Amino acid sequence: MSLTAAEHNLRQTIIDRRCTRDDVAVGYADAIGVMGFVNWPEIDQAIMERWSRSGLEYIKRAAWNRRAGEEKS
After folding, report:
1. Cα angle at 63 between 61 and 66, to 5 degrees?
2. Tens of pLDDT along 57-67?
């Protein structure tokens, strides 16, 4: 199965040490809105390996808040 562009970009953001949790949250929000397969268990694991479980929770919360804000616009 091939990666969607949003998943590829998100993975690149996760491994880029210059990127913050907020940067990853933007990519995570974009991937949530993608039609197609996203390997969430692998994405979440990569985030936890870089930050922690609380980092993952922060990113998910920020991503969903971003999505909710876009839907209100």
Report:
1. 110
2. 999 999 999 99
Q: Where are the domains of the chain?
A: 5-72
Q: Global pTM?
A: 0.89
Long-range Cβ contacts of 19-28 (<8 Å, 24+ apart) = 21/51, 21/55, 21/58, 21/59, 21/62, 22/62, 24/59, 25/58, 25/59, 25/62, 25/63, 25/66, 26/63, 26/66, 28/59, 28/60, 28/62, 28/63
**Helices 53-72 & 40-50 angle (0-180, nearest 10):** 120
- Give whole-number Cα distances, 22 to 5, 18, 27, 32, 37, in Å: 19, 11, 9, 15, 23
